[in-house]
Hints:
Blueprint: E1 2-4, H1 19-27, E2 43-47, E3 57-60, E4 63-65, E5 71-77, H2 90-95, E6 127-131, E7 137-144, H3 165-171, H4 174-179, E8 187-196, E9 205-216, E10 219-227, E11 233-243
Antiparallel strand pairs: 1-3, 2-5, 2-8, 3-4, 4-5, 6-7, 7-9, 8-11, 9-10, 10-11
Helix pairs in contact: 1-3
Amino acid sequence: MTELLVPRRFCGPASSGNGGWTAGALAGLLDHDRDHAAAWPTIQVTLRKPPPLDTPMPVADGVAVDPAGELVAVAEVVDRELVPVEPVTAEEAEAAPASYAGHVSHPFPTCFACGTARDDGLRIFAGRVGEDLDGRSRVAAPWTADRSVAEDYHLYATGEPRASLAVTWAALDCVGGWAGDLEERLMVLGRMTARIDTLPVVGEPHVVLGGARGRDGRKTFTASTLLDSDGRVVAVAEHVWFAVDPAAFA
């Protein structure tokens, strides 16, 4: 049986997996028709409980359960159009981390994607870059994948190493939360839908964008986009976040 395992390096909160990394790793285990040279389909992953760390989780037909048999996450191919976040210039993205709200107060400083206490994380510190044409807030940050997050099982015609699928999903994760209302209330990722056209080349500068998409009670809706060094969209995602009781993550 196939298993999903989230190594401790890829935590979000200190005691559970980063939602984006976990979702991307599960997406990579989903059976679907794809040539490795082509784009992945659009995949939706719903997280039902905090993913445990360093714990083998059986996976069958896109469904991951913990050792006790409780549902952790479900992945499925969906037919949905994902709209990219409106871009900013490379200069705006380079300047944005100076206004990253996580520098002032961070609910999960251990987070692999956006944690300020992680030297071995992605350190995507997305700061405000104004509103889009519909008046919704945006954040942005530069990001360059290093060799420690490179995948090791696909070969590409150009021969360059690329970030893994799970890491690419992680890069598209928290930037959405910071574009939403993570500064106002504690939230965790409940659902993420992503389309990865091309995995990021290791060592190549990229820009990560996050955009607010609305709020409904406990739910916050956001989107994210990854641009390569030429400004081309290489991946897009949408998220549903749920406000949670801070005591649950004390």
